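Supplementary notes for students who missed Thursday's class. We covered one full example, reproduced here. Read the sequence, then the structure, then the short commentary at the end.
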Amino acid sequence: MKNITVIGSGTMGNGIAHVFAQNGYAVNLVDISKEALEKGIATITRNLDRMITKEHITESQKSSTLNHIKTTTDLKSGVKNADLVIEAASENIDVKLNIFKELDAVCGTDTILATNTSSISITQIAAVTNRPEKVIGMHFMNPVPIMKLVEIIRGFSTSDETTKTIMDLSLKLEKTPTEVNDYPGFVANRILMPMINEAIETLHHGVAGVSEIDTVMKLGMAHPMGPLQLADFIGLDVCLSILNVMYEGFKNPKYAPSPLLVNMVTAGKLGVKSAEGFYDYSQSKKAETVSNQFSKR
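Structure (token representation):
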């Protein structure tokens, strides 16, 4: 594989593009607007600058990485000659199904179609294409340039050949691919999201405040980040979407989203992306400052 196309230039998309480009692959980064693409490239540039500061890469490696990335708002030209397309759009089933229908129509017959979904059925996505054996889940972790895990999800019809190709490719990126089967939430989020949801319920019931809950999990359970802060970084809207997928998929009340999470998303408090979630990330306050409305009662 030489030519990689990434659909979506947001947090996950630009991180995936960054990793492939840094490893010498030709990358086409596709999004619906030039502004989104410019923001994505700016993020990649900042992340490369941080790597230079930490002496992980050189200036020439930064230039080489950026030179490996081309951007476009035209999907058809963006996937031309692609060996692999990785979709990293929003965690919305309708959006993903529409993208894969279009990808199937415009991509070469040998092109593998992957999705970075963190919860949605690979089998369902593959079913809208004429190449279900070449559709696979490639779930990177955030931040992509740093995190080693790639959750490789086989759909019902994903071939052994496709799976091996993607597993081998992940190793070439110096990642650790782990093969899992296609069930709601896969492994990572089937375990992680109920924990985050329970932390939110613990806050909702007044057991403890935000910083207290996170401190218990960091110091008592050796987690590098507390569950509420992690939820802010993932995006509370994304957490809600994943929990809804799992709740619908398993029909089990243990996956039902906390009312507090639902209300926060409805109110637009999405975490880091909106500058406020369980913590306040606005310019006027430090990120670790707990919002007053969530102070311990």
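Commentary. The chain has two domains: 3-181, 189-294. The chain has a mean pLDDT of 94. If anything here is unclear, bring it to office hours.
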